[in-house]
Design brief:
The chain is α/β, with parallel strands linked by helices and about 220 residues long. It contains five helices and seven strands. Keywords: Cell outer membrane, Lipoprotein, Membrane, Palmitate, Signal.
Length: about 220
């Protein structure tokens, strides 16, 4: 029996091949769920607490997305976890005015440094709600610990998403620096042209007595 290939199947195959070629040509590789630039195929990780849970969460994300952790060096990109903090605010109250529901906010500050391109500092936040039941104090403590652990995992994933946007961010920085340099050069060229024009006019007036008299008459007026 002769196999039948539909035009729709051919178009779908062509589209997949085209996307794969485009991805390979722009310097990205699929690692895990994100498209990470080649600049961070090897990445050093430093933090305020290298034995803390956040450090371990980010390092596990490295393994998940195919990033090779290396020792810190001036020649390799670095991800530095600056700080973490947890805050809360009351969302609702019981009838006895005791807090019934909280909103927990987990905040992480970190810095990304790429050699010869620059550095950027970011802040990521994760919010969760938490019910405070006074009748189950032990269970409440365990539940809160679990929520905070989930927030750390979510923060680590957000850091990976930020890493995936590194190329676009640094390209934009380079374009802004180039535009500023071009504007500065344009201003310098205009200033030099103006100075040269004044010098030429002054030389012409000095060489031509009639022009010098005209200039003196204009100055007297």
């Amino acid at each position: 029996m002769r196999a039948f290939i539909s035009p729709k199947s051919i178009i779908r195959t062509f589209f997949v091949v085209l996307m794969a070629l485009a991805t390979a040509s722009c310097g990205f590789h699929l690692r895990g769920n994100y498209m990470l630039p080649d600049d961070i195929a090897k990445l050093s990780l430093t933090s305020f607490d290298q034995y803390g849970q956040l450090h371990r969460q980010v390092k596990s994300q490295f393994q998940l997305h195919g990033i090779e952790p290396v020792a810190p060096s001036s020649r390799v990109p670095n991800l530095h976890l600056i700080s973490e903090s947890t805050g809360e605010r009351t969302l609702s109250l019981y009838q006895n005015a005791r807090a019934a529901e909280y909103e927990l906010t987990y905040t992480v500050r970190y810095r990304i440094v790429v050699p010869e391109k620059g550095s950027q500092t970011y802040t990521t936040r994760v919010n969760r709600t938490f019910l405070d039941n006074p009748l189950t104090a032990l269970a409440k403590s365990v539940e809160r610990d679990m929520i905070e652990q989930e927030m750390r995992e979510q923060a680590a994933k957000q850091i990976m998403r930020q890493l995936a946007r590194l190329t676009a961010i640094f390209n934009q920085m380079e374009e802004q620096e180039l535009e500023a340099l071009l504007e500065q050069n344009t201003d310098n060229d205009e200033r030099v042209s103006t100075e040269l024009g004044l010098d030429v006019k002054a030389d012409s007036a000095a060489a031509d007595p009639a022009a010098r008299q005209d200039n003196q008459a204009e100055s007297a007026q």
